[in-house]
Design a protein that fits this description.
The structure holds three protein chains of three kinds. Chain A is built from 19 helices and 28 strands. Chain A is an alpha+beta fold. In chain A, helix 17 (675-695) packs across helix 18 (747-764). The model of chain A is unreliable at 1-7 (pLDDT under 50). Chain B has five helices and five strands; from the N terminus they run ββαβββαααα. Chain B has helices at residues 23-30, 86-93, 103-116, 122-128, 140-149; strands at residues 3-8, 11-16, 49-52, 55-58, 71-73. In chain B, strands 2-1-5-3-4 form a five-stranded mixed sheet, with helices on both faces. In chain B, strand 1 and strand 2 form a beta hairpin. In chain C, strand 8 (146-148) and strand 9 (151-152) form a beta hairpin. The radius of gyration of chain C is 18 Å and the shape is globular. Chain C starts with a strand and ends with a helix. The chains are: A alpha+beta, B alpha+beta, C alpha+beta. Chain B binds chain C through residues 2, 18-20, 22, 41-44, 46, 49, 55-58, 60-63, 65-66, 109, 112-113, 116, 128, 130-132, and chain C through 1-6, 8, 31-32, 35-36, 38-40, 48, 50, 52, 76, 80, 99-103, 105-106, 181-182.
């Protein structure tokens, strides 16, 4: 990494991060670091059962316990349901089933960890001590845990007022057309895929501090959120009926999100609501075990798919049937994940002309499932790249050749897929070739032979993929069921002395916006970075915002900043024109100076700023004082990052341990503002992708008890599970935004899991192993080798 | 309630604690040194790592009262004013942190590693970090940071 | 954590008397297992007796016969001891693989043995090396000490003071860690001792650490990796959980035993 300290700070420079000093010195300000005067502490009593009626609930002893301020139950907290932000319609036109989701359970609990009561006390220890004095009598009900049994006729219903456990039965594409194409196929490849359920595990557990100011009637919520304005809207309008001007939501430093901190959670509503009831601020901080049983989980799809090919291995049609677990309630964006973020991606990077996908979303007695890094796109990518790998093996065409035969050519953009999306740009051959060179694919055969001499099995796996991110166009998402617009806003406030504060609706929880956005504005305004401050995360400071997820911050939020900055420049030109006695059209802006074209008459940015606030002789009917502009940006399309990931593994047949010995990613993320930060985002995504492929999985037992409820049982990727990565970019520019940026936050997690599993299958293919499930744990791999041995011998 | 006294970041401090008060609670809640974080409840994530009498320990798995008389260093005690410790500087140079939550424990653990093994191999670095979980970086740049600090 | 009375005795005798006078007292050594247990409210002792102030329970002495380790000696101290490394290198290596560096800086041999977690490493060393566990009142051979999962021969008010390990002619400990917790999913210590070949297995057994007699007899005939791998290990009585079936654990016992024999040289 080049050392750019004191060097260039514009677009393309690996500027060291502005935020690091505070994090490295212990001066970060996370929600749990915030203490408010007179603060109390909340402990939430949670259901130990997956499914039960609450026959009786007696809080009197807890209320009398030492230090206790109040105890509330669902009967006390008569507020609105936690809302769902996305409505999907089934193929018969009926809206999805949308059950009530009370912040504190009313009469029934539906997953282990469901909120039963809240105890508020002077200390957390006292609150927790008192919670043991709450007497709850549960009448246990059978739990529905897996999706197949949830759909079986006569299955126990998770929600009594619904017809069954089906949330929706949705489709995209024309099944008759697909069947027609399959009838003509020379070869059909079939696959059954489970996309394993994951637990996000941002290292900072969720926390919330609620406060009510009786003098102003204003509520403040400090919370671990990726999108404070969305929380203000959802909680204020739907749950607690607090208007926006009386509700401030602050998301300070947030210790990772990966999707899990997008959603509006019960605890936020509980501490906000209760703070007015008890007249004191209330802090709640999750213990990690609570995070495991309450943070929205990710993935959890079961899919059967079939791919029809002609005699040359060209894909003719793709048919997919997917079941998606919603958990016990609908989390904020859950319904859109297996539909609009998954099924619309099923063309991948290929020219498959006909695609049909049926998705059934299903309620179970498990934690709600929602978007987790990649959200729908990893599930689609894993399915496509696994079935393409299988097809290559069945037809003998070869891994790279079958992909090349089916790539959308680089001159075919804009490219309309059969599943709604229109790709704007890409060059899949370029990323594949670059990744193959980087991964030294040519030398693989020799490496495999050398490993074999040591008794190890080597394998190489490919994944050529794309994703749709920059989650936005309001018109598109609105037509697809979003109950909100998905744009972004920015305000550029130039202060009288020429320093600048940028207010962005995006939120940084590790992404380094304070650096990247400042680079962007420094570049645009010709100012040093230290004159620019990025402000985010406080609804009382930032005008509005939709937050950060779906790799949208730069492609949507960055464009809003550009738009507002351009308005600043336009206004500043008018001011300069007035002072310099020229026409605004004749003012040129370059390197921070406003110059009358063809003259040496010039004003520096700072002078213009000062003039804007000291407007002694402004023509006020034409020119307002001040230099402060707001812009909202609603993009024309999604952006489509993509690329090629190549994984090389070595397997110890004695133990089944899979060692990732090489992980190469060459991604097209569009224009890169800060390469150091982009590479870091990709590294993190790769680790989560390798984690899904080899280590992580959420396990419930048949009674709905969470077996993987702590780091004792849920395998987090650690430093010694991972190799150093080889990461590069090979970019085409986004065709519909001014920066040409696409997004980089999720590519690592989307592209890598199939590369890893394809590598494992490759390593074991000669032993007779034909399939591998995620996570490919040592026992899974060892057992696959044992099971395959007789079959291989028979062949 | 018992009183504990210890040296934290070179300053003598004391306070009343319950027997059950953890060292991390004493640091965060009583001393308001909130740089030391709590990321799990099973002593695995390492966000709470501090130095006690020169060794890295998990402050979530140490009672405050066990640190009575001890010399404790937290992340706040590492830099010299605005001059970062070489390990902090290395993390900044190499983008060894993203959200910053695991960072204090990670840095304190890494400092202890170099105290004990000034020239660790990449393998030794990765093994040493067994008790520090990061969800953001994939560890790639953390390893690079420690290598830089070790003068590799 | 529930509240408790905290005590910090300065001597073994004071520790024993504090334990005797408590309603439901609990000794704390390094606390690396006990404190997480208390945090999860899985135990509610009335009194916690911290052995951290008993200075004569710390330290390592090595003589020609073996190694004696004070109960309050940390894993890091054992791992870092050049004397242990030269007398019984397998023991230093085992200590270096317990938990993570921070756990090793606090956790102690006495605490580990007294807790007898079925997935802990030290019990395997004690059994394989035929260690003697010294308490405030007696010395017990390892074979008699570990009586079942989380169960030992210790009386309620008895305190471990030290552990003696006779020096083997060769030994190796091979661990297959649980991928999540990093405790031993299967850990096998193979030792050539004065009493013959001893093979102890931790992590796998339903009743905690045990001797793999089949492998011992195979190795007594031929101390080779192949002999270790060839001895059949029954899955009966082995743990099964989401991380490993009993069959897989049985297989791993063979693999780890084979590697341990190979490492013995």
């Amino acid at each position: 990494m080049p050392d750019t300290a004191g060097g260039p700070s514009g677009i393309g420079a690996s500027v060291k991060r502005v935020e690091d000093f505070r994090f490295l010195t212990g001066n970060g300000n996370y929600t749990d670091d915030i203490d408010r005067p007179g603060q109390t502490y909340a402990y939430i009593l949670r259901s130990p059962h997956a499914h039960a009626k609450i026959a009786s609930l007696d809080t009197s002893a807890a209320k009398a316990a030492s230090g206790v301020v109040a105890v509330f139950t669902g009967e006390d907290m008569q507020v609105g349901s936690l809302p769902c932000g996305w409505q999907v319609h089934s193929k018969d036109g009926t809206p999805m089933a949308e059950p009530e989701h009370p912040p504190l359970a009313k009469g029934k609990v539906r997953h282990v960890g469901d909120q039963v009561a809240v105890v508020i006390a002077d200390s957390y220890a006292e609150a927790k001590d008192a919670a043991e004095k709450i007497e709850v009598s549960y009448e246990e009900l059978p739990a529905v845990v897996d999706m197949a049994s949830a759909l079986a006729s006569g299955a126990q219903k998770v929600h009594d007022d619904l017809e069954n456990n089906l949330c929706y039965d949705w489709e995209i594409g024309d099944v008759a057309q697909a069947d027609e194409a399959f009838a003509k196929a020379a070869h059909v490849t079939k696959i059954d895929i489970v996309n394993n359920r994951l637990i996000p595990n941002a290292m900072e557990p969720r926390a919330a501090v609620g406060e009510f100011d009786r003098s102003t009637g204003e509520y403040t919520l400090y919370t671990t959120s990726q999108n404070p304005h969305v929380i203000r809207l959802l909680m204020g309008a739907f749950v607690l009926q607090i208007p926006e001007h009386k509700l401030r939501v602050v998301a300070p430093d947030v210790g990772g999100g990966f999707g899990s901190k997008i959603y509006h959670y019960a605890e936020e509503a509980i501490v906000t609501w209760a703070s007015a009831k008890v007249g004191r601020p209330i802090k709640w901080t999750a213990e990690r075990s609570e995070s495991f049983m309450t943070d929205a989980h990710g993935r959890d799809h079961v899919t059967h798919a079939e791919l029809a090919m002609d005699a040359d291995g060209k894909f003719l049609a793709f048919k997919i049937d997917t079941q998606a677990n919603m958990g016990a309630y609908l989390s904020t964006f859950a319904p859109c994940v297996p539909t609009y973020l998954y099924a619309t991606l099923l063309a991948g990077v290929y020219t498959t002309p006909v695609i049909y996908c049926n998705v059934r979303a299903i309620f179970t007695n498990t934690v709600p499932v929602d978007a987790y890094r990649g959200a729908g796109r990893p599930e689609a990518t894993y399915l496509i790249e696994r079935i393409v790998d299988r097809a290559a093996r069945e037809t003998g065409i070869g891994q790279t050749e079958i992909r090349r035969r089916n790539f959308i050519p680089s001159d075919a953009f804009p490219y309309q897929t059969p599943v709604a999306l229109q790709y704007d740009s890409g060059d899949y051959e370029a990323t594949l070739s670059a990744a193959m060179a980087e991964a030294k694919v040519d030398g693989f055969a020799a490496r495999k032979a050398e490993a074999a001499a040591r008794g190890k099995h080597r394998g190489l796996g490919f994944s050529t993929y794309l994703e749709a991110c920059g989650i936005a166009p309001s018109a598109v998402v609105g037509s697809l069921g979003a109950r909100a617009g998905l744009y972004e806003s920015a305000e550029v406030r130039v202060h009288p002395t020429g320093s600048v504060t940028i207010f962005t609706g995006a939120h940084s929880h590790g992404q380094g916006h304070e650096t990247t956005f400042a680079q962007l504005v420094a570049d645009r305004l010709g100012l040093p970075m230290e004159n620019i401050e990025i402000s985010h995360g406080d609804t009382n400071k930032v005008q509005f915002g939709m937050g950060t997820y779906g790799s949208r911050s730069l492609a949507v939020g960055g464009e809003a900043i550009v738009k507002a900055t351009d308005k600043i420049i336009a206004k500043a030109k008018k001011i300069a024109a007035h002072v310099l006695e020229a026409s605004a059209d004749d003012i040129e802006f370059k390197d921070g100076n406003f110059t009358v074209a063809g003259t040496d008459k010039s004003m520096a940015f700072g002078e213009v700023a000062l003039t804007a606030y000291v407007p002694h002789n402004f023509p006020h009917e034409e020119l307002e004082p001040g230099l402060d502009e707001t812009a909202f940006y609603d993009p024309a399309n999604f952006t489509y990052p993509g690329g090629c990931h190549i994984c090389e593994v070595e397997i110890d047949p004695d133990t089944g341990i899979v060692e990732v010995v090489g992980m190469t990613a060459v991604d097209d993320v569009g224009r890169v503002i800060n390469p150091m930060i982009v590479e870091g985002q990709i590294h993190g995504g790769l680790a989560q992708g390798i984690g899904q492929a080899l280590l992580e999985t959420c396990v419930y037992d048949e009674n709905g008890q969470l077996v993987t409820g702590s780091y004792m049982d849920y395998t987090m990727p650690r430093a010694d599970n991972l190799p150093s990565f080889s990461v590069g970019t090979e970019s085409t520019l986004c065709a519909h935004n001014s920066l040409g940026v696409k997004g980089c936050g999720e590519v690592g997690a989307i592209g890598s899991p199939p590369a890893v599993i394809n590598a494992v299958v490759d390593a074991l293919w000669d032993l007779g192993v034909r399939d591998m499930s995620m996570p490919a744990t040592p026992e899974t791999v060892w057992k696959a080798i044992q099971d395959a041995a007789p079959a291989a011998a028979a062949e | 309630m018992p009183t504990v006294s210890m040296t934290v970041n070179g300053k003598s401090v004391s306070g009343e604690v319950e027997g059950r008060t953890l060292l991390v609670q004493f640091l965060r809640e009583q001393l308001r040194l909130t740089g030391t974080h709590v990321g799990c409840d099973t002593s695995q994530c390492g966000a709470c790592v501090v130095h006690m009498n020169g060794d890295s320990v998990k402050s979530c798995t140490t009672l405050a009262i066990q640190a009575d008389g001890a010399d404790v260093t937290t992340i706040e005690g590492l830099a010299d004013g605005d001059t970062l410790h070489p390990m902090q500087e290395a993390f900044r140079d190499n983008h060894g942190l993203q959200c910053g939550f695991c960072t204090p424990g990670m840095v304190m653990s890494a400092v202890d590693l170099l105290q004990k093994n000034p020239k660790p191999s990449e393998h030794e670095i990765r093994e040493w970090l067994e008790g520090n979980i990061c969800r953001c970086t994939g560890y790639h740049n953390i390893v690079k940071s420690i290598q830089q600090a070790a003068g590799a | 954590m529930y509240s408790f009375e905290y005590h910090k005795p300065g001597s073994v005798a004071d520790a024993v008397s504090a334990l005797k006078s408590a309603d439901d007292g609990k000794l704390m050594a390094g606390g690396q297992t006990l404190i997480p247990t208390l945090k999860q409210r899985l135990a509610q002792p009335s009194d916690l007796i911290d052995l951290g102030g008993v200075s004569d329970m710390k330290g390592i002495t090595v003589d020609g016969d073996g190694v004696k380790i004070g109960a309050m000696t940390t894993h890091a101290a054992v791992a870092g001891s050049s004397e242990v490394a030269s007398a019984i290198p397998a023991l230093a290596a085992l200590a270096d693989g317990i938990g993570d560096p921070q756990v090793r800086n606090r956790g102690t041999i006495g605490g580990s043995i007294a807790n007898n977690d079925p997935a802990a490493d030290y019990p395997a060393a004690c059994i394989a090396l035929n260690a003697t566990i010294h308490t405030d009142r007696r010395s017990v051979s390892a074979g008699d000490f570990f009586t079942g999962m989380f169960e030992t021969a210790l009386e309620e008010d008895e305190v471990i003071t030290a552990v003696s390990f006779p020096k083997p002619s060769a030994a190796s400990y091979q661990k297959f860690p649980n991928p999540a917790s990093r405790y031993a999913l299967v850990g096998v210590m193979v030792a050539k001792t004065a009493d013959g070949v001893r093979v102890a297995v931790t992590g796998a057994g339903e009743d905690g650490v045990f001797r793999a007699e089949g492998i011992e007899s195979a190795l007594s005939g031929s101390f080779t990796p192949d002999a270790a791998a060839g001895a059949s290990v029954s899955p009966d009585g082995l743990n099964a959980d989401i991380h490993a079936s009993a069959e897989y654990r049985a297989h791993l016992i063979s693999v780890m035993a084979k590697r341990a024999v190979a490492a013995c040289g």
